[in-house]
């Protein structure tokens, strides 16, 4: 009897090739499939769906502990997916997984996220894709996030995903026994209260640090940010279609003319 081929899994992130979450995710995926890692050569957080134009991209083999681990690309997470599909992989992957990101990608963070951007590029290329994020920037423990990622990837490989749909998965940074469960959520409306810090360089010229705090504007477990704050894993299906379909008819009634 012919042995069933292991699924081909492409792994990317936005924290760069040295990101701990990337290494945990790759190790977890290797337990269920044939893994190729293609990641930015340095951290590229907040890149969203940016891609590099007018500047050549450099691709290098990356070794870890004297062993080949994957490839680096001198660009954005979206660049990594494009380069991987067109120049590194000989076959189309069965699934793309992105992460595991430092920090949540809930609510409006979803728009800024390079981790989510890489997954969205996968869906544009008609490949099922998932973005994983751990909701912390310090004292990160990716152990359970890697375990849950493997469980969900197995499920998606069996069930598939609706067309043009990415799963954005946010996992609380708490021990497994403290996880309350899993909620399939909508993208919330929580947003950043911006704070720009101004300082002067040695020549007296001003420069700025972008900062802020995420304001919780959602109040029940059907929304991603609220769910993770209540110790649930939030699994949010998001689409590459950004049309506000509810507004289409209203705008058409404006009877716009040239």
Description of the molecule:
The protein is α/β, with parallel strands linked by helices and 258 residues long. It is 26% helix and 30% strand. The protein has helices at 20-29, 77-88, 109-112, 114-124, 143-159, 224-229, 245-252; strands spanning 8-12, 34-40, 59-64, 67-73, 95-102, 129-134, 165-171, 181-184, 191-200, 206-215, 232-239. The strands form two sheets. It has a nine-stranded mixed sheet, sandwiched between helices. A two-stranded antiparallel ribbon has the order 9-10. A hairpin with a 5-residue loop joins β9 (191-200) and β10 (206-215). The longest helix is centred in the middle third of the chain and has 17 residues, at 143-159.
Write a short abstract of this structure.
The protein is 26% helix and 30% strand. It is α/β, with parallel strands linked by helices.
Q: What's the helical proportion of residues?
A: 25-40%
Strand content: 25-35%
Query: Which of globular, elongated, flat, extended, rod-shaped describes the shape?
Result: globular
Low-confidence stretches: none
Based on helices, strands and strand pairing, what is the structural class? alpha/beta
Cα distance, first to last residue? Answer: 66 Å
Number of separate strands:
11
Give the oligomeric state.
single chain
């Amino acid at each position: 009897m012919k042995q069933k081929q292991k699924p081909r899994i492409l792994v990317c992130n936005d924290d760069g090739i040295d990101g701990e979450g990337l290494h945990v995710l790759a190790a977890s995926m290797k337990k269920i499939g044939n893994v190729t890692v293609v990641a930015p050569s340095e951290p590229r957080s907040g890149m969203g769906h940016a891609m590099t134009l007018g500047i050549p991209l450099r691709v290098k083999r990356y070794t870890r502990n004297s062993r080949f681990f994957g490839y680096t690309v001198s660009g954005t997470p979206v660049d990594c997916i494009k380069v991987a599909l067109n120049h590194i992989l000989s076959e189309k992957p069965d699934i793309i997984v992105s992460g595991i990101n430092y920090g949540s990608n809930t609510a409006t963070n979803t728009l800024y996220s390079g981790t989510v951007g890489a997954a969205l590029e996968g869906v544009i290329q008609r490949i099922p894709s998932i973005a994983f994020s751990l909701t912390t920037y310090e004292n990160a423990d990716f152990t359970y996030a890697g375990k849950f990622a493997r469980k969900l990837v197995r499920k998606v490989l069996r069930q598939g995903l609706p067309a043009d749909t990415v799963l954005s998965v946010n996992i609380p940074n708490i021990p497994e026994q403290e996880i309350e469960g899993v909620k399939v959520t909508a993208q919330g409306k929580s947003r950043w209260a911006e704070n720009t810090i101004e300082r002067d360089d040695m020549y007296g010229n001003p420069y700025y640090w972008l900062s802020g705090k995420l304001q919780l504007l959602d109040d029940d477990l059907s929304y991603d940010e609220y769910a993770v704050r209540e110790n649930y894993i939030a699994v949010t299906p998001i689409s590459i279609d950004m049309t506000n379909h509810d507004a289409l008819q209203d705008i058409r009634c404006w009877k716009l003319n040239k």
